[in-house]
Amino acid sequence: MATKKSSPDDLLAPLTLAVGQEDLLLDRAVREVVAAARAVDADTDVRDLAPEQLQPGALAELTSPSLFAERKVLVVRNAQDLSADTIKDIKAYIDAPAEEISLVLLHAGGAKGKGLLDAARKAGAREVACPKTTKPAERLTFVRQEFRTLGRSATPEACQALVDAIGSDLRELASAVSQLTADVDGTIDEAVVGRYYTGRAEASSFTVADRAVEGRAAEALEALRWSLSTGVAPVLITSALAQGVRAIGKLSSARGGRPADLARELGMPPWKIDRVRQQMRGWTPDGVALALRAVAEADAGVKGGGDDPEYALEKAVVAIARAARMRRG
Which among 28, 117, 172, 280 is placed 20 to 30 Å from 5, CA to CA? Predict the structure, then answer.
């Protein structure tokens, strides 16, 4: 390994080096390695470690031979912050890595901890670039690639409109692409993006849903009122609310699964599994049931079953936010 560089396609390389400060890309780099390892061995042991958890000598214990010869993935976050003694341990280890172990180092890049970067590259690490996207053109390229990855076609004007509406947050851009591909058949054009993302990005129908399922009633209502004032159709908001609550319910019932398996089972991209897991805090089965009833009532209200669609939506948003806080006793 000291002289042969690992292929970018070798997800099970002994050492993967993810370099940059874009959290979404860093998380994806980790998930790809974990998914590949679990495809080979479903019982792969995954350890996700912060610098303070990897004290001098700890790496030797984590990489020591197992009685059951199990596969392991060791993820070290913020590797630039490791102590000098721990860096020495890692440098010694990567010159003679253990079999069945994939070490993933997440490094911000830059001068801090550069010695570890240089050593990992010299040892032939598989490297994944995870740079912050600072330019509009880079975000546009990201959106185009997201559509391609999901096997969908979007016009250049639609991609640009989405970047203009959402802004610089890659997670939000990825979420928007996922929602559009799930909701819209055929080629996604500028008119479709305009219907979903009229007005400022944070007032989209999906942001209303996100804030509601997170229990943030005031923010959800603010986003709802702005969204309605800028012309977003109420039916799109009820659709987003329904999707948000259903995702919570689906993942709640499958909580013990692995991310890669859950992604296939539930039809969600792996990054969305992680996002919904964060939103699940505070939810109970009774809360999900109440929220689904609230969405159904709102849907009827905006489709002619009530006199005031806006009130129906506000009532649903408040009910969903309250349901999100029904913690188990």
Answer: 28
Are 126 and 8 within 8 A, CB to CB? yes
State both tokens at 195. 């219907």
Strand duo 101-107 + 72-76: pairing? parallel
Residue with tokens 């690490």: 125
**Distance (Å, whole) CA 258 – CA 48:** 15
β-partners of residue 74 are 47, 103
Q: Which tens digits make up the pLDDT trace of 47-62?
A: 999 999 999 999 999 9
- Residue 302: CB partners within 8 Å, gap ≥ 6? 234, 235, 237, 238, 309, 312, 313
The answer to whether the pTM exceeds 0.90 is no
Q: How many CA atoms lie within 13 A of 276 on its CB side?
A: 26
